[in-house]
């Protein structure tokens, strides 16, 4: 991934807008030339911090204009990363040791004797505090055989929450498949609105930056407000938006019709992770033929998404059956085996 990212970053058009950020009242933006400089600065910072060794970097940060530089710099430093909640559960000694966390980048002072403040770094007038976690020995490094791109923790919906380490080989096919099947180009802005601790946010991020597309980032307050999120999509010219069906249910019908209408900036809506809405419900949205709506499904343990199915447009809604819309065809390098457990709940092994 390092060579691929280095090549893409090198050829970014300097004056093209690379990232946009909306906090609910104001917009800020950064062109690819400035982003390239931010990445160079932050990569050198991480390489010096880690002494060139592979260790896990933890990010406890909110969405912001400097986010792309943090993520890409971690990758270019050969250091995997994880996004953590700013709560007690994320900083439990058991979890931190299980992760093998070495460094933590956070926005607010951390009053915890297990952490030592060693550095600060500033990106776009925002200061980040860098702490060393003292619970992991200095000689613990990630070997070549253990290397992975990022880590995440499962929600616990299919059992006890656990740490998942996702290698490049798992997430990259997602990025390439979505780019090809959906037809994303550098002209399509990608909305980064998924919570950073939820792994689909990683797909959004790499979809944008590896395609040279503008990355439209929104604050947590905007993410939680359908009205503000719709405003961000239209004014930020975001063409790609993914969310869950349950979150999309929070949108009023008139908001959905604006989002999916003829004059909308949106071109692709991806609903994933849960049962897809019924054909009858989708029809009430009155989507315009220029907006394509997809169903996707996957497991954190494998990567992010494993299947993709076009819900709209299609001839006479033929992709829907009496049981609804299925999860679709598998993405590349993914095999699906369907089984039933004693309670007749359908499970998909990917």
TrEMBL record:
UniProt-listed GO biological process terms: amino acid activation for nonribosomal peptide biosynthetic process
Keyword annotations: Membrane, Transmembrane, Transmembrane helix
Signal peptide: none
TM stretches of this protein: 55-76
SUPFAM superfamilies in UniProt: Acetyl-CoA synthetase-like (SSF56801)
Listed name of the protein: Acyl-CoA synthetase family member 4
All residue ranges annotated as the AMP-dependent synthetase/ligase domain in the record: 139-325
């Amino acid at each position: 991934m390092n060579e691929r990212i280095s090549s893409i970053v090198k050829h970014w058009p300097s004056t093209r807008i690379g990232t946009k950020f909306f906090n609910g009242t104001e917009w800020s933006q950064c062109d690819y030339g400035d982003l390239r400089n931010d990445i160079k600065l932050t990569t050198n910072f991480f390489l010096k911090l880690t002494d060139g060794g592979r260790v896990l970097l933890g990010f406890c940060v909110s969405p912001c204009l400097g986010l792309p530089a943090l993520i890409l710099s971690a990758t270019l430093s050969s250091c995997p990363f994880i996004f953590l909640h700013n709560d007690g559960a994320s900083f439990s000694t058991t979890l931190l040791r299980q992760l093998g966390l070495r460094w933590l980048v956070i926005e607010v002072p951390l009053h915890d004797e297990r952490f030592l403040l060693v550095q600060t770094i500033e990106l776009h007038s925002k200061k980040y505090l860098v702490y060393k976690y003292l619970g992991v020995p200095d000689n613990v490094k990630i070997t070549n055989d253990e290397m992975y791109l990022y880590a995440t923790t499962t929600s616990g919906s299919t059992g006890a929450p656990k740490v998942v380490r996702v290698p490049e080989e798992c997430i990259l096919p997602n990025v390439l498949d979505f780019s090809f099947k959906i037809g994303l180009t550098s002209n399509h802005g990608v909305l980064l609105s998924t919570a950073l601790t939820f792994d689909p946010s990683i797909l959004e991020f790499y979809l944008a930056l590896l395609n040279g597309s503008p990355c439209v980032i929104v604050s947590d307050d905007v993410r939680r407000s359908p009205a503000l999120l719709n405003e961000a999509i239209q004014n930020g010219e975001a063409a790609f938006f993914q969310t869950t069906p349950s979150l999309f249910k929070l949108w009023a019908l008139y908001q959905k019709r604006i989002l999916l209408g003829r004059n909308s900036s949106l071109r692709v809506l991806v609903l994933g992770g849960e049962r897809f809405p019924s054909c009858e419900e989708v029809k009430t949205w009155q989507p315009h033929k220029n907006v394509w709506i997809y169903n996707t499904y996957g497991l954190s343990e494998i990567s992010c998404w494993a299947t993709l199915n076009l819900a709209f447009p299609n001839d006479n809604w033929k992709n829907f059956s009496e049981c609804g819309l299925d999860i679709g065809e598998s993405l590349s390098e993914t095999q699906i085996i369907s089984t039933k457990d004693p309670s007749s709940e359908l499970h998909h092994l990917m």
